[in-house]
Design brief:
The structure is a single chain. Strand 5 (about 75-80) and strand 6 form a beta hairpin. Helices cover about 20% and strands about 35% of the residues. It starts with 6 loop residues before the first helix and ends in a 9-residue tail after the last strand. It contains five helices and 17 strands. Strands 4, 5, 6, 7, 8, 9, 10, 11 and 12 form a nine-stranded mixed beta sheet that branches. InterPro entries: PTAC.
Length: about 240
């Protein structure tokens, strides 16, 4: 008795056997490959550290945007920043300090915030004649104010002028990698020819959507010649010795 063989069925079985043999030889097992996605901002299985110079800039409320740039105005994105969802706006303001000292064309960053805040470097505050304290963003109680001038109007800030303290943005995966938590302090080492600097007191600002990025101001960036740095290293602050020194 003859048996009729389905040729297409045989071809399918052969192809399946070949695929299984190839998978076993290349992977060493029949288990499927992992489909896990690398943490945000990571490269080659580890955090990708970026150190950025944060030049003087201004954050505004929705109300102040309309006063400075006209009724119905909103911030217009011009350039995306490294942190997703944040941008440098097309709009700029003039900052007026005591004795009519001015800084023209100070960039506004978006999106808008619940309160307006001006962030300067030390040399900027000297130029304006404002004794701006070092503060972390949002800690503006008791800080000096200034006048902001836009094409449609002006705003008197009673407080909000600060020298932004250095800090590092990171997500939960970055924090686990370094063994730190939100609010901890870290140390940034910048190695440059003849002007290497170690910056202490780098505040950890952990957020699930953040990418690893240290922010220092223009004075700090110039002091360590960041643009020509040969190496940057982020690490936990060393523990104080038992003697207390």
């Amino acid at each position: 008795m003859s048996v009729t063989v389905d040729r297409s069925q045989i071809e399918n079985l052969v192809r399946q056997a070949i695929r299984q043999a190839d998978a076993a030889s290349s992977n060493g097992s029949m288990a499927p490959q992992s489909s896990s996605v690398a943490p945000l901002g990571w490269v080659d299985g580890k955090p990708n550290l970026r150190v950025s110079i944060s030049a003087r800039h201004c954050h505004l409320t929705d109300e102040h945007v309309e006063i400075l740039f006209g009724a119905g105005s909103v911030l217009e994105p011009d350039k995306d920043l490294y942190q997703d969802g944040f941008y440098a706006a097309k709009q700029t303001v003039m900052v007026v300090g005591p004795r009519k000292r001015m800084l023209p064309n100070v960039r506004v960053l978006g999106p808008t915030r619940p309160f307006s805040q001006l962030e300067l470097a030390f040399t900027d505050s000297i130029s304006l004649g404002i004794d701006a304290p070092v503060r972390h963003s949002g800690k503006i109680e008791g800080t000096p104010g200034c006048v902001l001038v836009g094409p449609a109007g002006s705003v008197q800030l009673d407080q909000g002028v600060i020298r932004a303290a250095r800090h590092v943005h990171m997500n939960d995966h970055d924090a686990n990698f370094y063994g730190v938590a939100n609010g901890d302090m870290m140390q940034l080492v910048v190695k440059s020819n003849d002007c290497s600097i170690t910056f202490d007191d780098v505040l950890v600002r952990a957020d699930k959507a953040a990418k690893l990025e240290v922010h220092i101001d223009t004075d700090e960036g110039n002091a360590c010649n960041l643009d020509a740095a040969s190496e940057v290293l982020l690490q936990k602050m060393p523990d104080a010795c038992a003697c207390g020194h």
